[in-house]
Amino acid sequence: MSSFEETVSRLLKIPVGYATVLRNLFSKPVTLQYPEQKKPMSARFRGRHHLKRYDDGLEKCIGCALCAAACPADAIYVEADQNTNAERYSPGERYAKTYEINMLRCIFCGYCEDACPTNAIVLEPIEFPTGYTREGMIYTKSMLLEAPPNGVPTTPQATQPGKFDRSIVPYPPVDASV
Ligand code: SF4
Ligand code: SF4
Question: Are strands 138-139 and 94-102 parallel, antiparallel or unpaired?
Answer without folding.
Answer: antiparallel
